[in-house]
Design goal:
Structural class: alpha+beta
Number of strands: 12
Order of helices and strands: EEHEEEEEEHHEHEHEEH
Mean pLDDT: 89
Low-confidence stretches: none
Oligomer: single chain
Number of domains: 2
Largest sheet: 4 strands, antiparallel
Radius of gyration: 25 Å
Strand order of the largest sheet: 9-11-12-10
Distance between the termini: 86 Å
Strand content: 15-25%
Amino acid sequence: MFKNLKSLFVVEEENGKQVIKHREDLAAGAPLAITLEAAIEGAIDALPIPKVMAYQLHENCVQPGWTTEKFVRPAHKLVVLHGDEVPQPEVMVLGLTAGRETQGHRFEAKNPFVSIKDADSYAQQMESEGAVIPGFAARRAEIVRQLEAAAAKEGLKPIEDDALLEEVTALVERPNVLTCTFEQEFLDVPQECLILTMKANQKYFPLLDAAGRLTNKFLVVSNIRPADPSAVIGGNERVVRP
C-alpha cells in the first residue's frame, strides 16, 4: 500500500483505459537544453532534403576550420531561447553553439547582427532590425498582397499558381514585387509557351487581362528593396527576351 495518496496519479492510455501510477515510477526529467538539442536534431533529420552539402565551420564551433557539417546550405547562426534566457548547458546543433544572436538580410539589415531579446519578440525584431520576414505564412501573405496590389494598379490579374507561390515564398526573405514588361510582338508566340518559361525558368508571375489572355507585363518577386529598382527591373526584362 502507498503511504501517501498524493504520490498517485491517473494516466489515460490510448485504448481509453485509465491506469493509476506512482510518481516514483517516473524517471527524473532531463535538462531542458539536452531535450531541446535532441528535438532540434530530430526536426532537422526529418526535413525532406534530397541532397545535402558538406562544409567546414570557421567560427563558433569546436574546431574552427576542421569541423565538417552537412546541411542543405551552410548554417551560420543558431538561436535557442527559453523565454528570454539561453538554455544551459549550451545547446549545440550543426556544429554551432546556440545563443541569442543571429543575422538579418545580407544587404538591408540595420546592423550585421540581431540580438533577440526573447522568443516572443523574434519575428518582430527580425523584421524591424534584420529586414526579413522570418515566418513562411506571413511572408507568403505579404507576397500575395503585393502581387494583387501591383496587378490591380495595371488593371490586370496575376496568374494563379499555388506551387509557384510556395516556391517563391521559400526563395526570398524580404519580398518586393516589381512590374516588368516585354515587347508586344512576343505575344505572337503561343501564350502557353511564354507562361511556361516565365514560371518554370524565371519564377515570374505573368499578368492576364480580364479575358484570361496573357499580356506583355509580368511580376517579379525580388529579395531586395532598392530606392531605385530600375536596374532590377531591367535585368529581369532582359532575360525574357529571345
